[in-house]
């Protein structure tokens, strides 16, 4: 039997100390740091401390909204993390990172076929780019790359010169497009057989994600991994044959929760 612990949604500021209780982990074989713990630099400080403190535990890092602000390109931070993992001698040996590509782990003779995604909601067709949408944490933190087209953001009175790049802030339509891309990626991953468990990890929750407020949305219809670890919403439930587990937040009660996976 494998024990999995999830850490997510700490929302640490760049120079904010984390609660010391969040470094006291339960007995676990795998710890998933599942997004929104802080900007990548701050999240990595916490992760590296935990990897050092628990060297026999395997860790996975999945990025979320809070982890990836101010990117000059849509994949700048994921690419930077992957490069550091590949080339830095200081990358923890028990820390695993793979974004939008399958990751295979063998723990206690059990194979885990894992896919990590930020996750994009399939926003309802009735939702528009209005005041309610722009009041959500999702809109404030999520963007879909950058543009160098000055006509998109240059004020009429601004000088007619190059003003640099500008974030492409999230809209319902862009979310739907990236959601459809995720669905294709997930279905391709699920179609490939494994001797172990299929495990999907997303920083977004399939229901009542707090970053989306009251926005109506859905997530990944008709998918059936064995386990789906999520951020945003505290839950341990079944959707079909899939176990959905989320454990957001901070403090001793949160840090004591584990999800068990039967050995194969």
How would you portray this structure in words?
The chain is an alpha/beta fold and 264 residues long. It has a single domain (2-261), classed as Purple Acid Phosphatase, chain A, domain 2. 23% of the residues lie in helices and 25% in strands. The strands form 4 sheets. Strands 5-6-10-12-14-13 form a 6-stranded mixed β-sheet, covered by helices on one side. Strands 4-3-2-1-15 form a 5-stranded mixed β-sheet. The radius of gyration is 19 Å and the shape is globular. The model has no long low-confidence stretch (mean pLDDT 92).
- Helix coverage percent of residues? 10-25%
How many domain units? Answer: 1
CATH class: Alpha Beta
Provide the spatial order of strands within the biggest beta sheet: 5-6-10-12-14-13
By DSSP, the count of extended strands is 15
Indicate the CATH architecture: 4-Layer Sandwich
Radius of gyration of CA atoms, rounded to a whole number = 19 Å
Element order, helices and strands?
Answer: EEHEHEEEEHHEHEHEEEEEHE
Number of helices: 7
Structural class: alpha/beta
Q: Output mean pLDDT.
A: 92
Would you give the CATH topology? Purple Acid Phosphatase, chain A, domain 2
Q: Please state the overall shape, judged from the principal axes of the Cα atoms.
A: globular
Uncertain regions: pLDDT < 50 for 5+ in a row?
Answer: none
Q: Which percent band covers the strand fraction?
A: 25-35%
**What is the straight-line distance between the termini?**
8 Å
Q: Major β-sheet, in short? A: 6 strands, mixed
Brief synopsis:
This protein has helices spanning about 40-55, 75-85, 130-135, 135-140, 150-155, 170-190, 250-255; strands at about 1-5, 30-35, 60, 95, 105, 110-115, 120-125, 145, 165-170, 195-200, 215-220, 225-230, 235-240, 240-245, 260. The chain has a single domain (about 1-260), classed as Purple Acid Phosphatase, chain A, domain 2. A 6-stranded mixed β-sheet has the order 5-6-10-12-14-13, covered by helices on one side. Strands 4-3-2-1-15 form a 5-stranded mixed β-sheet.
């Amino acid at each position: 039997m494998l024990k999995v612990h999830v850490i997510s949604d700490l929302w640490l500021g760049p120079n904010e100390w984390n609660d010391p209780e969040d470094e006291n982990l339960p007995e676990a074989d795998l710890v998933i740091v599942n997004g929104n713990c802080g900007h990548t630099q701050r999240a990595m400080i916490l992760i590296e401390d935990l990897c050092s403190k628990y060297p026999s535990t395997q860790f996975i890092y999945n990025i979320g909204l809070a982890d990836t602000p101010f990117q000059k390109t849509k994949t700048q931070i994921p690419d930077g993390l992957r490069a550091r993992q590949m080339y830095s001698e200081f990358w923890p040996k028990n820390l695993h990172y793979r974004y939008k590509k399958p990751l295979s782990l063998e723990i206690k003779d059990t194979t885990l076929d894992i896919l990590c995604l930020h996750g994009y909601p399939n926003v309802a067709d009735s939702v528009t780019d209005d005041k309610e949408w722009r009041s959500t944490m999702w809109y404030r933190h999520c963007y879909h790359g950058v543009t160098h087209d000055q006509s998109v953001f240059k004020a009429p009175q601004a000088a007619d010169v190059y003003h640099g790049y500008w974030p492409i802030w999230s809209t319902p339509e862009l979310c739907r497009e990236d959601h459809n891309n995720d669905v294709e990626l997930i279905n391709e991953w699920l179609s490939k057989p494994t001797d172990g468990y299929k495990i999907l990890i997303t920083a977004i929750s399939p229901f009542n994600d707090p970053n989306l407020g009251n926005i109506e949305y859905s997530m990944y219809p008709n998918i059936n991994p064995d386990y789906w670890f999520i951020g945003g919403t505290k839950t341990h439930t079944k959707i079909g044959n899939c176990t959905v587990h989320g454990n957001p937040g901070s403090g001793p009660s949160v840090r004591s929760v584990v999800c068990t996976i039967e050995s194969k």
